[in-house]
Structures are given as C-alpha cells and as structure tokens.
Amino acid sequence: FAPWEDSQQKPLIEFVNVTKRFGDFTAIDNLSQKIFEREFFALLGPSGCGKTTMMRMLGGFETPTEGKILLAGQDIGNVPPNKRAVNMMFQSYALFPHLSVWENIAFGLKREGQPKDQIAARVDEMLRLTRLEKFARRKPHQISGGQRQRVALARSLAKAPKLLLLDEPLGALDKKLRHETQFELMDIQESTGTTFVIVTHDQEEAMTVASRVAVMDHGKIVQVSTPDVIYEAPNSVYVADFIGDVNLIEGNATKAESGVQITWGENTAPLVSTNSDQALAGKRVVLALRPEKVSISVERPDAPNVLRGKVIDIAYLGNLSTYHVQLETGTMVKAQIANTRRVSRRQITWEDSVWLSFSATAAVVLEGG
Ligand code: ATP
Hints:
Blueprint: E1 11-22, E2 25-36, E3 40-44, H1 51-59, E4 66-71, E5 74-75, E6 86-89, H2 101-111, H3 116-129, H4 145-157, E7 163-167, H5 175-192, E8 195-199, H6 203-209, E9 212-217, E10 220-225, H7 227-232, H8 237-242, E11 247-255, E12 260-263, E13 271-273, E14 284-289, E15 295-297, E16 305-316, E17 320-327, E18 332-338, H9 342-347, E19 353-358, E20 364-367
Parallel strand pairs: 3-8, 3-9, 6-7, 7-8
Antiparallel strand pairs: 1-2, 1-4, 4-5, 9-10, 11-12, 11-14, 12-13, 14-20, 15-19, 16-17, 16-19, 17-18
Bound molecules: adenosine-5'-triphosphate.
Residues 22, 25, 27, 45, 47-53 line the site of adenosine-5'-triphosphate.
C-alpha cells in the first residue's frame, strides 16, 4: 500500500505551471507537480536540470517567474524563508562549532523565544529521535561525521517543519556509513511524518530512500513514479539511460502477437517484448534491457530472444560479474551475472563465443533512436 496512490491524499506542495527564468535562460519550464503529505520525494537528473532551483523555490530563496507554489493550499510566493513551515538541511550541515550538540539543536527554538521548559522537552525528543542522547554536551568537533549529520537533522526537525528539504544530505559520509544513514533517514522520516524532498547525485540513494522519484530533464519532470516503476518501466530512453545501467538496441518496431518485436541488424532474428506498447509498430525504436536480465551460456538456450557474440571483457564486482559481449552486428551488450552461479563464471572467459538470452518480458521498447 502506497499512501500517495490514494487520490484522497492531500497534497502538501503544488507546483502550478511554474517557470523560473534567469535572464533569458529557462531553468524551470512550465512545471506542475504535487508532492503529498508524508512523502519522501526525490528529485533526480543530470547537472543543470534544475533540481537546486526547485529546492530554492520551495525554501523561499528564489521566486517563480511565472506560476505559483502552494503549501497546504496557500500560495507561498511572497512568504519569506523564515516564515515558511519549511526547513533546509545543507550538505555542509552548518553547525555552530562553539555550541554543544544540545545548544545547536535548541538554537532555532530559542530564537523563536519559546519557553525554556518547552525547548528542553523538544531538544530531548530530537536527541532521542536521532539517538544522540549521549552526545548532548559535546561540541561538533568531538563527534563523528555520521553523528554530526544526525545533529544537523535533529536541528532542522526541531521546529517541526511541514517540509524538510535535503540537499545532498549524506554527501560527506563514506559509502558504508552512507548506507546505514539512509535507513536512519527513512526511519526518521516515517516516525515524524514530515514530508522530505531530497536532491542527491547518488541515484541508488534516491531509489533507496524515496517513496517517489521525479526524473528531470532541462527544467521539466519527465517521469515521476515509485523507484521500481522508474527502473523497470522507464517511459523514455532518457529515463532508462539515466537510471542504472542499460543496454540500448536500436531497430524498427512491428506488431507481435502480444507487444512488439523489433527488427534490427542484418540476418538477426527479431527481438520480442511482450510488455511494450503496440502503438509503437512502424516506428523507429530502442529496446532497453537491463544487464542483470541477460543470461549468458555456451550452448544455445531455448529462449524467445537469443543473441550470438564474443566475450570482450569481464568486470569482476565481487557479488556480480559484468560480461561485455560484442555481437556479430558490432553492438556491445552487457550481461550481469551473480557470482553465486559459479559454473558459468568458470566456463566462460575472454574471447569465448557465447549466447546471450532474455525473456520477452525482460526488455521494454521505447520510442526513439
Ligand atoms: P547540479 O546537479 O549541478 O547542482 P541542478 O540540477 O541543481 O544542477 P540548478 O542549480 O537548478 O541545476 O541550475 C539549473 C540551471 O539554471 C543551470 O543551467 C544554472 O546554470 C542555471 N542557474 C541557476 N541559478 C542561476 C542564477 N542565479 N543565475 C543564472 N543562472 C542560474
């Protein structure tokens, strides 16, 4: 069950035909999007696509050139940053070095002039939430990077914002700690019920933490969905190519019994995809196929889609190996095989002629090429 699929769900944020221009450059292009209460929403896209501009408009550091942004139904266009129920956590954390963890978390509450006992209760609650009780008296330089990240999170949640903006929140942490912290972030988001919007360059991170992911291209959101749909059913070659690793094979689509088949290369059998739109028939298309959906074998397998080629390279990744196979057409196809299937790894090596195969449901055919 996903709460955001419920049409009764109340949007917290609504971008309504928002355009943001810097001079004659359009950074955000007539974008409309809802973000619901309690969502963990990720903005993904290449450098310059407008992610930070979206965050800055939500935070109140930029105003839309056209259109409006609603927060809980109210136009926040002219509401200054400190008057919005929105907080932003920066990658640098910006903790005060001379203040203790406790004082750092209390800072915003004190500035609001809240009563002392109320502040103390709230800070203690935030310390418990982020498991920092033991470190309350320490200064930022006396705790680890992961703990500093939690202080920054505790501080930005102390005033109970409706929306928390996270700009590369885990960028300063090493990979292992980053993974652990991702789960903490998800727990904290869930237990506080705050809406989180995250921008990260780490796609895997976005896919792990977010309940919905929006993929951006040149100031527009081109697909927004749950991480599994974005990965398994991208709506364009752009999205397929941006998220994860993918093989792209160009060809012409014709109608198959179910779905479409693509004809490509000389003397090559058509490739079948049963889960693709038949309206693509007659068009130039691209077949998108994830490397982990491709099997590799010495003997010709009995499968709807088979390709013949030669192993050019094998990248050993510990749990997986990626085989780079050059087809007779010259096209390179990657097959990613779990190393628990040891037999195939021993049997197949560089320069070997192999068969690649994949099921009719494994690939998706998309317009383009
Ligand atoms: P990155 O991943 O590199 O941070 P981004 O997706 O966050 O990129 P933005 O920072 O939103 O991208 O910038 C979008 C576009 O708007 C870029 O081409 C950028 O150069 C431009 N831009 C952003 N701020 C300004 C500004 N104040 N003046 C002029 N152009 C700007």
